[in-house]
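In response to a reviewer's request, we include the raw inputs and outputs for one of the modeled complexes. The two entities were modeled together in a single run.
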Amino acid sequence: MRFAKIFVALVATTLMTAGCASQKEPAEKAMAQVESSVAEFRADAEKYAADELQKVDQSITRLKNALANKDYSMVVKAVPSLNSTIASLKQSVAAKKADADAMMAAATAEWTDLSAKVPQMVEAIQSRVDTLGKSRKLPANVDKATWETVKTDFETMKTEWTDATTQFASGQADVAVRKAREVKAKGDQILSKLGMTPA
Amino acid sequence: MATENPYAQYHVVRQGDTLSKIAEEYYGDKMLYPKIFEANTDVLQDPNKIKPGQKLRIP
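The model returned the following structure tokens for the whole complex.
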């Protein structure tokens, strides 16, 4: 009786070990595939869906731990669901990247326009400010308070334009465009205060 | 050829205008008329000779 019990236990252990061993290769293969599929778009995912990527990474770590603990069946069972999460993350990252690329293209086009206009505006205002600075009297359409405001606003405008060009050069096209719009609006106000109707 | 600045201001000469009068109108100081003359040497040879209808750039 005792021998029979030992025999059954041995058989069971052997079968379990064999069963586990038979799942080792599929489990390792599946994990390698999971990691390779995430690696394909990891850089974009870090940029556009960092939180979702973190969750996927946590799942991968859990399964790697299971793999290390030889819990192959758990890995084999969990991988299909993880693959589906990865597929939907990949889709979401691609969509967000497409949106960001479109926004960047629009911002770059607007920047091209603004970066042509604003320096011309600055040149025209600078010339007038320099001349009025030498004038013994202000023109009839510009009072002293307006003149003082114009001088201050123009200095701010030039500083902000430098900031915008620096932002654009550092790859922040959207931020640079927002700033450039403000700069142009300030320039329009200055032109109006100085009575400089554009040709 | 330099591109024309779209923000440059222009003045079309009227009957009775002089560069001094124009300088006073835009700068408040008639003594600044040489600024306008220098900016328009492509159309003006003499600061005392301007004609109605001439389009002058006001720098």
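As requested, we also summarize the result in words. Chain B has a mean pLDDT of 94. The domain at 9-58 of chain B is CATH 3.10.350.10 (Membrane-bound Lytic Murein Transglycosylase D; Chain A).
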